[in-house]
Amino acid sequence: MQARLDFYTASPDVLKAMIALETATNKLGIDPVLMELIKLRASQINGCAFCVDMHSADMRKAGETERRIAAVVVWREAPFFTPAERAVLAWTEALTRIADTHAPDAVYEELAAHFSPKQMADITLAINTINSWNRLSVGFRKLPAD
């Protein structure tokens, strides 16, 4: 696969807007482990090699185990995730695949069982943010470094 264009230089205003969104999202107070689970799972679903590589590396640097990183893709079958993490992973999948799932009530209710309304809104913004990055990176074929 070959990169299509560098969206960082093609439209600096887009990059500024995305960085502002990322900065705002990172200031919401979402638990860093949950944030990285969101980023990795959405990136896996979206097939974003650049983001999967980056967020897997970020998780390792933060002390996450290889076992849990590898199991994110099969989190439903793996016993390594807490009920709150599972709720976030399910919500991430539901929103990332919104055209197919329509954000099911059961998934929403499970999220609501673990998080406050503010936390739910914040988690949703984090999901939206990584999906935006994924669409830029996949669309323009941003590749991980060798």
Could you name the key traits of this structure?
single chain, 146 residues, mainly alpha, 9 helices, 0% strand, globular
Low-confidence residue ranges: none
Q: Tell me the total number of β-strands.
A: 0
Percent range of helical residues: over 70%
Q: Tell me the series of helices and strands, N- to C-terminal.
A: HHHHHHHHH
Shape, principal axes of CA atoms: globular
Q: Structural class of the helices, strands and pairings?
A: mainly alpha
Distance between the termini: 13 Å
Number of helices: 9
Q: What is the average per-residue confidence, as pLDDT, rounded to a whole number?
A: 96
Q: Strand content of the residues, in percent?
A: under 5%
Rg over CA atoms: 15 Å
Characterize the quaternary organization of these chains. Answer: single chain
Main sheet specs: none
Please characterize this protein's 3D structure.
With 146 residues, the chain is an all-alpha fold. The protein has helices at residues 7-10, 12-26, 32-46, 49-61, 66-71, 83-96, 98-101, 105-114, 117-139. It is globular, with a radius of gyration of 15 Å.
Helices and strands in order:
Blueprint: H1 7-10, H2 12-26, H3 32-46, H4 49-61, H5 66-71, H6 83-96, H7 98-101, H8 105-114, H9 117-139
Helix pairs in contact: 2-9, 3-4, 3-6, 3-9, 6-8, 6-9
